[in-house]
Amino acid sequence: MLKLTPAERSNLRDEAHALNPVVIIGDAGLTAAVLKEIDASLKAHGLIKVRVFGDEREERIGIYDAICAELHAAPIQHIGKLLVIYRPKEEAIKESQGKKGRGLREVTIVKPSRSGTKKPSVSKVMLKGNERVTAGGTIKRAKPRQTSSKKSLSAK
Question: Helix, strand or coil for residue 11?
Fold first, then answer.
């Protein structure tokens, strides 16, 4: 199973709020055809909702765990008969591996307490290639570099 930080899971829950279920699991349960369809949907979308018909909560939890384990996906949310599942798109993974320094990277941010007497807060954050952490612990995006019009004219 894929592991995510609570902040990432929260952001994905926000994104999934507006989604409609793309796969529906009926009375037959979790079959090979259903798994194949879920896998195809995860490849295409990355974040999907699955509706499970059935009144047994324990059965739905078992289906949820089986999907995440077999497809190497992360469980995001289980509300009633809706399951929200996430797996990064393969294109995004290949792009981040192909370009050095451009992919996602995990950074630990330690902020001291305001009073100085309590424990510092520690959080792990995923940064994109163009982001950096300031001394205060905030995340900033790098501004695009300005290019000189004179240099581009002299190169021709």
Answer: helix
